């Protein structure tokens, strides 16, 4: 705010400048005030959408790419000059760093509630989304999270929705795939003890056993570890056919390098937090042979994938990695629900969101079941070959598969 100029302005203009300056200050530091979010909840000219993910630390690459998708969705929505309740509106992103930490996440959740944001995209991690969801539920604020733990939507809250398939779907597919397609008989499982990693590993184990596989060893580490020598030495003695890891690329990359160094012949199998460009960079040539799953179709087969990829690259000067298309669709679905309800009041548009049918980038049939899980949740299995992720096969997601065929 330029105080020296105020003396030359009328009181009315000074007030307008002050309000504008406060709005700019909030964009830089959203905790400073709640005037714009308060307008949003009343359907005014600025509608705040909260976003939370790790934007610093070892998982920041996930959060930043996720945020890019949300940013692009909001920019596209604003370009259409939306109106709600007969008034022009502007959607505005309030992005916060939850550091992948549950305590920080709950603090941010309360701040978002206090600032009366209209809705939440995030949190990214299951371990942050689950505790934060109770706070949003009590306030009646809809949230569409990237979290994949089954617990997230099993709590019975009416405000919780997903951007991706759950670990139940993904772990089940991979457990069956390991036994039936990779012919693995002896299986070792390692997880990082986070809600995501352990949950994914649990579902993988159930499916592998049900398919006839023998889980000969179950180990655990944490999401900060980088030295797995002791665990891997123990695993080597079990002579497994595959090693499954539930966790992020910051651990799976050094793990696979150490596996190769120790002479472990079994391939590493993991989930979508391993299926990243960062994993390829960190693991180097030792990445070859690694198998990972990711929700939905490959980008080039998504209904809106090619157009999204072009626009994303032009906007952010970077390749689409993993999560941004899902963040984009979640944000557009949230906004579409507000527009259809003709209100940014969570009480008014939440029922509309629960029944939404959204034609998006990742699927032309983005719809939710009564828990808030996506109805059409296919899984694609990838393998690293010559330093690149290549498609092995896509399992499930009938509607998404039809979308892909129609798009060709």
What structural keywords apply?
seven-stranded mixed β-sheet, Rossmann fold, 408 residues, disordered C terminus, alpha/beta, 46% helix, 15 helices
CATH superfamily of the largest domain: Response regulator
CATH architecture of the largest domain: 3-Layer(aba) Sandwich
> Overall mean pLDDT score?
88
CATH topology of the largest domain: Rossmann fold
**Order of helical and strand elements:** HHEHEEEHEHEHEHEHEHEHEHEHHHEEH
The low-confidence runs, each spanning 5 or more residues with pLDDT under 50, are 1-44, 398-408
Provide the helix percentage: 40-55%
What is the strand content? 15-25%
Q: How far from one another are the termini?
A: 53 Å
DSSP strand tally: 14
Number of domains: 2
- What is the level 1 CATH name of the largest domain? Alpha Beta
Please, could you describe this protein's structure?
- By secondary structure, the chain is α/β, with parallel strands linked by helices.
- Strands 9-8-10-11-12-13-14 form a seven-stranded mixed sheet, with helices on both faces.
- It has two domains: 45-165 and 300-376, Response regulator (Rossmann fold), CATH 3.40.50; 168-294, 3-Layer(aba) Sandwich (Rossmann fold), CATH 3.40.50.
- The protein is built from 15 helices and 14 strands.
- Helix content is 46%, strand content 17%.
- The relative contact order is 0.12.
- Keywords: Signal.
- This is Branched chain amino acid ABC transporter substrate-binding protein.
- Pfam families: Peripla_BP_6.
């Amino acid at each position: 705010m330029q105080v020296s100029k105020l003396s030359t302005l009328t009181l009315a203009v000074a007030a307008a400048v002050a309000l504008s300056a406060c709005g700019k200050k909030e964009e830089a530091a959203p905790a400073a005030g709640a005037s714009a979010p308060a307008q949003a909840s009343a359907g005014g000219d600025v509608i705040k959408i909260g976003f939370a993910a790790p934007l610093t630390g070892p998982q920041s690459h996930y959060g930043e790419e996720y945020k890019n998708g949300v940013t692009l969705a909001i920019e596209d929505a604003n370009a259409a000059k939306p109106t709600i309740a007969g008034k022009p509106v502007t959607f505005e992103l309030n992005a916060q760093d939850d550091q992948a930490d549950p305590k920080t996440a709950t603090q941010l959740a309360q701040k978002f509630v206090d600032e009366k944001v209209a809705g939440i995209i995030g949190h990214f991690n299951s371990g942050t989304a689950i505790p934060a969801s109770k706070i949003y539920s009590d306030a009646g604020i809809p949230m569409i999270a990237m979290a994949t733990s089954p617990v997230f939507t099993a709590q019975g809250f009416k405000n919780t929705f997903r951007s991706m398939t759950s670990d139940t779907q993904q772990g089940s597919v991979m457990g069956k795939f390991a036994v039936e397609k990779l012919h693995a008989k002896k299986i070792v499982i390692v997880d990082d003890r986070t809600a995501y990693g352990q949950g994914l590993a649990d579902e993988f184990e159930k499916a592998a056993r049900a398919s006839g596989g023998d889980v000969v060893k179950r180990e655990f580490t944490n999401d900060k570890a980088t030295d797995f020598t002791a665990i891997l030495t123990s695993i080597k003695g079990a002579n497994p056919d595959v090693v499954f890891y539930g966790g992020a690329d910051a651990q799976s990359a050094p793990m696979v390098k150490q596996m190769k160094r120790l002479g472990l012949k079994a391939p590493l199998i993991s989930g979508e937090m391993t299926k990243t460009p960062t994993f390829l960079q960190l693991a180097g040539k030792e990445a070859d042979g690694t198998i990972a799953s990711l929700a939905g179709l490959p980008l080039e087969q998504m209904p809106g994938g090619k157009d999204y990829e072009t626009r994303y690259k032009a906007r952010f000067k970077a390749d689409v990695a993993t999560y941004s298309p899902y963040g984009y669709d979640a944000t557009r679905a949230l906004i579409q629900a507000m527009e259809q309800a003709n209100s940014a009041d969570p009480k008014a548009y939440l029922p509309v969101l629960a029944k939404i049918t959204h034609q998006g980038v990742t699927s032309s049939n983005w719809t939710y079941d009564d828990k808030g899980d996506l109805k059409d949740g296919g899984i694609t299995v990838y393998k690293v070959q010559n330093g690149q992720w290549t498609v092995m096969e896509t399992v499930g997601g009938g509607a998404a598969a039809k979308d892909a065929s129609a798009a060709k």
